[in-house]
Design brief:
52% of the residues lie in helices and 13% in strands. The chain is an alpha/beta fold. It has a five-stranded parallel beta sheet with strand order 2-1-3-4-5, with helices on both faces.
Length: 217
C-alpha cells in the first residue's frame, strides 16, 4: 500500500515540484496539496494522510501552528509531520520541533532523502537531515534556555550508544547495521529511551542528547 502524503507550501512551483518528485517514488502517493496552513489543516483532518510535508513559512496559519494543531502534545491522535524548509537556523525551525514535527529536511534534500524521510515518518520513525542535525540541534539547545529533564531511570550503555546515533540523524535501520543488532532491538531501545526521557518522538530524544552533551561527534 502506498504512503499517502499531504504537501503544503505557499510557493506553487515548490509545491508542484515536491508533488512530482514524491509521485515518482515507488510506494508514495500525494493525496492533497495546500497553499497555506489553514487549508493544510483542513485537508489533513479530512484526508488523514500517513505523512504531512509542511513548509514552515506559510500565510495565515504557518507550518509551526499547523504542526502543533495536528501533532502537538495535546493531540489525541497525532499525524506524522515532516517540516521542509530552507536552512537559516531561525526560531521557526526550533518551534516546529517543539510543536511535534517528527523531523525536518532542507528543500534541496533531493528525491532520495525526501523519499526516505516520508517512508520513515510513515513507519513511526523520523529522518533528520544528517547534514544539519548537529548544527541545527546544537544551536537549538543553546538558545532554548530550558533545563534538560532528568531520566526517570539511568540509561544503559546500549541506550547511550543509540541515543548518540539518533542525535546524529541515523534511522533505525542504520543504527541496527552500525551496532550489529536487530531492528526490533533498536525499536525496543528507542521506546525505552522515550519512556525514560518523557520524549514524544526521536526528535525530542535528539534534543535531549544535545542538551546534555551526549550527541557525540
Amino acid at each position: 500500500m502506498s504512503v499517502r502524503v499531504l504537501v503544503a507550501d505557499d510557493q506553487e512551483i515548490v509545491r508542484t515540484g515536491l508533488t512530482m518528485i514524491l509521485n515518482a517514488q515507488p510506494g508514495i502517493e500525494v493525496v492533497g496539496e495546500a497553499g497555506d496552513g489553514r487549508r493544510a489543516v483542513e485537508l489533513a483532518r479530512r484526508l488523514r494522510p500517513d505523512v504531512c510535508l509542511f513548509d514552515i513559512r506559510m500565510p495565515g496559519i504557518d507550518g509551526i501552528e499547523a504542526t502543533r494543531v495536528l501533532a502537538g502534545p495535546d493531540v489525541p491522535d497525532p499525524l506524522a509531520v515532516v517540516v521542509i524548509t530552507t536552512f537559516d537556523l531561525d526560531e521557526y525551525v526550533y518551534a516546529a520541533l517543539r510543536a511535534g514535527a517528527r523531523g525536518f529536511l532542507l528543500k534541496n534534500a533531493g528525491a532520495v532523502l525526501l523519499s526516505q524521510a516520508v517512508h520513515a515518518a510513515a513507519d513511526g520513525d523520523a529522518l533528520i537531515a544528517p547534514s544539519v542535525t548537529a548544527r541545527l540541534l546544537g544551536a537549538f539547545t543553546r538558545t532554548a534556555g530550558s533545563t534538560p529533564v532528568r531520566p526517570v531511570e539511568a540509561l544503559t550503555d546500549r541506550e547511550e550508544q543509540i541515543l548518540a546515533a539518533v542525535a546524529r540523524g541515523r534511522t533505525n535501520n542504520e543504527i541496527a547495521a552500525e551496532l550489529y543488532i536487530s531492528l526490533s532491538t533498536v525499536k525496543s531501545h528507542i521506546a525505552s529511551l522515550m519512556a525514560k526521557l518523557g520524549a514524544r518522538n526521536r526528535v525530542e530524544i535528539a534534543i535531549w542528547a544535545y542538551e546534555t552533551g551526549r550527541a557525540g561527534s
